[in-house]
Amino acid sequence: MNFFNKISLTQKVTGLIFSVTIFALSIGFVLYAYNISSNLRTELLSSMNINAKLIAEYSVTPIIFEDSKGLEENVLAKLKAIEAVEAAYIYDIKGSLFATYHQDSTENNIPEFILDEWNKFEGDYLLLNQPVLFENEQYGSIFFRINTKALDQKINNQIGLMLAVGVAILFVSLLLAQRLQTVISKPITDLALVTERISRDGDFSLRINKSSEDEIGVLYDEFNKLIERVDEHQKNQKENQKALKRSEEKYRNLFQNSLVGIYREKIVNGTMLEANEAASKILEIENIKSFNFKNVYAFPEERDTFISILNEDGEINNFETKLEYKGKEKWVSISGKIIDEGIYEGVIQDITTNKENYNKLKKANFELDNLVYHTSHDLRSPLLSVLGLVNIARKETDITQLQALLEMVEKSIKKLDGLITDLLTLSRDNRIDDDLVEIDLGKAIDESISNYDFLDSFEKVKIATDIQAHSPFVSDKTRLNVILNNIISNAIKYCRQDIENPFINITVEVTAKSCLLRVEDNGEGIDQSYIDKIFDMFYRASNSSEGSGLGLYIVKNTIDKLKGSIKVFSEVKKGTTFVVTLPNEFETENEI
Hints:
Blueprint: H1 2-6, H2 9-58, H3 60-64, H4 68-75, E1 85-92, E2 97-102, E3 118-122, E4 125-134, E5 137-147, H5 149-201, H6 215-257, E6 261-266, E7 272-275, H7 277-283, H8 300-313, E8 315-325, E9 328-340, E10 343-350, H9 352-395, H10 399-431, E11 436-438, H11 441-450, E12 462-469, E13 474-476, H12 477-493, E14 503-510, E15 514-521, H13 551-561, E16 565-571, E17 575-583, H14 586-591
Parallel strand pairs: 12-14
Antiparallel strand pairs: 1-2, 1-5, 3-4, 4-5, 6-7, 6-10, 8-9, 9-10, 11-13, 14-15, 15-17, 16-17
């Protein structure tokens, strides 16, 4: 079957016609051989039966008169005219051999007596037994052994002739099959060739010409109709593909060039499938395959909330969350919907600035309320003290007492002046940005120290400075002075009076990138429970504090403005260390 499937249609049709011819000839040959053999044998048997009956009639008289010799010479001798008869044996009614005839004198194969009429073909012989009858009375029987080689030769000759005719017919049928097969195979092969060209070249304009009105003609018509429909479908498909391509290009351009971040992810595992340039920039994605949303939520429980809303509603709107990725924090707002089973398409916006501005505004409102409350209280309190002292002074006549009252008034006014100064400093720091200039840190520190030489504790404390400048330092001088004045003044104010060697060590290290300022003292120190609160507005770490509570708040606010940082290390009765890191704008200034 595999071989039959591999050969060509022409070979199949030729082979089929030739096979049918062979089959038909084979059947005809078998029938003819059988028929000729049967007819010739029947003809021989019929002829021998006639001869046997004639011999039997001629043998009646010799048998009656027991003239065996006469029977052999006058009757059986006639068998010589029949070459096929090899032997004849006549028996009397008693079964005794009465007379014989045989062509071979050495014949000694004498058959047994058979009374009844009998015949059969056995090997190369026809064996025939004929009763000797006269007036329905049997006087004996005659047995003939007839050679059938001549008959077989005749049959073989007939069959040989038939084979020769059959071979000739087969040769002619092969020639005819090769020619006639084109009637069937050519229309099919033509159809196959056209189909192959269409498949190879994609040319659906090809058609096949109908040459008949039979089933092949119907096949051609239907094939042409099918190709027409395919051609029309191809044209429509090409137009659709062009339209789809234009649509995809428009969508791709919109997707990639959109200022809004657009992305797709697998809901079940958070795998990022696609992200446009804006989304990649927002999320700082370098390799989409390595990015997973499940790993960037600052609060993992918010991812569960996000998935829950998405699965329940099929979409989500303005979901705000904080992400942590590559050591950075970022607030984002996400909106989108499920576009396919397990696939989510979303729009992401960076709202970090808005969130920071909101938090700043919220903080500013709180601080404004706090400022108004404390300012009104801290302004009114010294004024009430002054008014009370003035009223007392009016009634006082003792010069010494009046001097003491005036000192108290002065102290209240100074406190009020300090508060107003701090408020002005805070207001200025929030509103004004001075030019960046190169700063002599040694000179700036000395000026800050000299500003507080009037304090009672100034004479006792030992102040040492160590400046290592590997690069010029460029920054906002006014803001730097605010930081130095507040930190140094606190170190002087809160030095311990009960020890012999109070000190303040100021060390500075300047590089091209930053300035590291370290102010260390062995003063009163700050309790650890207050460390996180000392930079809050109007917070006083101890009851002995005489300031407005704005100093360290202003320091922290100023350092934030300069994009620096501050750390505090302190222990009660052992001292405090402030470590301030500020960026050096020297390289930025040179680039400009």
